[in-house]
Structures are given as structure tokens and as C-alpha cells.
Amino acid sequence: MQISKQLNHHLEKNSKPFDMVIGAKGSPLQLVLSAILHMDNPTGNISLDEVLRIRKNPMIKEAIPVSYGDNYMGYRILGTSDQYVGKYGATLKEGKLNTKNFEAIFGAEVAKKLKLNIGSSFVSSHGLIQNEVEEHDEKPFIMTGVLRPTGTVIDHLIITNIESVWEVHEHEEEHIEHKEEHKEVTALLLNFRNPIGALQLSRSINKDTSLQAALPKFEIDRLLKFLGIGFRAINGIAIAILLVAGLSIFIGLIKTVRERKHELALLRTYGATTFQLLKLVFLEAFFLSLIGFVLGWFLGRVGIVLFSSLASDAYKYHLEISSPDMQEFLMLLIVVFMTILASILASYSLFKLNVSKILADA
Description:
Elements: H1 2-15, E1 20-24, H2 28-35, E2 46-47, H3 48-55, E3 60-72, E4 75-80, H4 83-87, E5 92-95, E6 103-106, H5 108-114, E7 121-122, E8 125-126, E9 141-147, E10 158-160, H6 162-168, H7 176-180, E11 184-185, E12 187-192, H8 195-208, E13 211-214, H9 216-259, H10 261-269, H11 274-315, H12 326-346, H13 355-361
Parallel strand pairs: 4-10, 6-9
Antiparallel strand pairs: 1-12, 1-13, 2-11, 3-4, 3-8, 3-12, 5-9, 6-10, 7-9
């Protein structure tokens, strides 16, 4: 439940700042995963000339280009405009924003893991996976600032300007002057003045151009629908386990009542009422269920920590250890209800307790 809930929240929170992403032809889901969530490889690059032409559309409110292809220690170096940081509500924790070429600011998680100091220099590696073969030694970056944690993808990025990304690859081109005329970006992130603009431009771009337009909300909803099948199956198994647990409580209570008939009969001789005997059985079952629930909640959080460590390595994303929520409170009420029901059913024989016969047999 927690992993499903946090995954949904993470995907929606990171895709919410943008209405549309434009990139090279390919899978629209891959385009969203790569350009917005930074969890996949890009579908390709698009011409800067086409980007500039699209930005002139009067329906567009904001247009933020992004360009990437390099990494440092496995963390993506993203070339973009000053607007990008503000879209995720990120603010500086220390240092200053990047204002010149080859200046870079670190997301909170990147700074925490790499532990570089303000003013430190570093060189990028070609590609999105850490490697030491294709390092751009002649083009070092300078770390100028660290962002505060936001709980978004920006925490796992190294951000610079687009000019730095272009320049770091210029040495790979034989004709730099020719390259200046044909610069490219990886994707263009858009916001519109109204929703109709997004639908109209999306149809126009996909039909009449060599580019591809994808709507993040639509693609994320489609992804969650696929993932939801697996989560529903797991939840179904969990409900079955919960029912089996309730049955085991019931069987355990029947066994307890039978084994302690002599003790219960003695309590009756000392004046205990049937209701008091029933309360004793219920309290035992209740504490057993409560301890099991608390232990289950704790082990669930341990599972989240373990899963988070794997997700962090693979997707650069951390799950959070959250406090009990309303769903878990409802589950506790269900457990208590099942315990009460099991106690009543298991203790039915207490209403027919033959004290003299039980004591005589003992």
C-alpha cells in the first residue's frame, strides 16, 4: 500500500509542473520518462530551430528547453534555463545559482552523496551511466551551489545552462562553425495558457512535423494503469492473508478456551460473570492482534527502507518513511472488528459452561 501510494504521488508530483513535452519521434511514454522523470534514455534530439519556431506559438505560456547526455558519478547533468529550478519550487541552500558557462548547481541528494564543496571542479562522462572511458577532461564544471530538498527529481540532478552542454561536445565535431548553426536540444517542456492549446498543438505536431508531442498526465495515468494491475494482485493476496490471519485468531481462541476450561470454571466459582470471562478472552485476542499489527507496520517500514535503497540505485529516487495514514487506521479497525467477532464465536461455549462437571472431571 505504501509503495503504491508513494509511487503514484512521486509520478504525479514530478509530472505536474508541465503540460506537454516535445521531443524526437518514438515512444511517448519513453519521452516523458526521460525528459521529465529522468528514468529512461531519450528518444533522440530535436533541432534548436524547430524549438524556436514552436516557442512563438501564442498558445504557449512557458517553454523550457532541456539538453542532456552526460553524467557525473552516475548523476545526470541537465542543461536548461533558469525557469526549470523554479518549476519545482527549489531554492538555494548554500552557494549561488549558475550564471556562467560550466557553472553547475547540485540537487540535494547529489550533494549529499558526492559530498563536494562549493567551488569544487569536476569533469563529466559521456552517456547517462557512470564511466571513466569518455570523460571530458578539457571541459571541467565548477560547483557553485546546492539546492534544498524538494522530494522531486531535481534532487537527483546536476543543473547547468544549455550552452555548457553544447560546448562540452563541440570538441567532438570536426567543424565547430557548422555545428553552431545546427544546435540541438533533447526536449522542450511546455505550459499552455489553456488546456485547449495543449490538445490542438499536440495533434498538429504529431501529424504535421517530424517531432513528437506527449502529454505527461496522460502518459503517467497510462503507466499507473499498467502498474495498478500488479498492485491490485498484491493487495488481493494481502486481503487473503488478512482473512487467514483472522481465521487463525479464531482457531487459536477456540483452542485457548478448551484448554483453560478448568481455570475459567474456577473463576466462575469465585464470582466472575460470563461477560467477564468473555472480556478476558477478548483482551488476549486483542493484544495479540494489536502486537501483530504494530509489528506488521514496523516490518512494512523496514521493507520500504530496503526497497528505497534499491530504487535509489536504479532510479535515483527515495521512498519516504511516513507516519500512519487513514488507510492503515481503517485496517486497524478491520483487525479489531475481526478480533471481536472471533472472540464472540470462539467464546460461545462459555455461555454453556458446566462448572460442577468441569471441576469434578479435573
